[in-house]
Amino acid sequence: MDMIVVMKASAAAADVQRVVDRVSELGLTPHLSKGEFRTIVGAIGAKIVGSREQLGQLPGVDEVMAITQPYKLASREFHEADTILDIKGIRVGGPHVNIIAGPCAIESREVLFEVGRAVRDAGAAILRGGAYKPRSSPYSFKGMGREGLELLQEAGHELNMPTITEVVDPRDVAIVYEYADIFQVGARNMQNFNLLLEVGKTDKPVFIKRGLAASITELLMSAEYVLSQGNHRVIVCERGIRTFADEVRFTLDVSAVPVIQERSHLPVFIDPSHAAGKRDLVPALTLAGIAAGAAGAIVEVHSCPDRALCDGPQAVLPGNFVKLMEQIRQISDVVGHRVTLWGRDDDEESPRRATPGGWAT
Ligand code: PEP
Ligand code: MN
Question: Which residues in 220-249 are b (16+ Cβ under 10 Å) and which e?
Answer without folding.
Answer: bbbbbbbbbbebbbbbbbbbbbeeeeeeeb
